[in-house]
Fold HTH marR-type domain-containing protein.
Amino acid sequence: MTALVMMRNGAVLTNSGYRTSTGVQDSRAATRELRELVDAGVVEQAGTRGSTTYQLAVKRDPAAAGLTGNEVKIMEALGTGSLTRAELEESTGLSKDQVQHALQTLRQKGLVRLLGKPRSRVARWSRA
């Protein structure tokens, strides 16, 4: 968490810098943790081996990520909060089927997450 805060404030970390900021002693463990952050899309990696650096991933514009019009509407409606499927229908003007299809596609792309049980009427969706 400390490393992410540092990156959010503009820091570019190396494996050594990550270990110093987090207290992780083993360089292999640090590499594994940094790789998990890269795989999750939270951090971007540049360089290889000894010159590898890590920085916070730049948020991409949903339209630039190859999303459909309906998917962009869903992402914009979600903003920084969470909404139920019914609330998404109301705020976007899309039908139930359009919202469900867009949400499933966005979930497969790792852009949204479901908060709650899949068949629950009170389940909420948020950006990942």
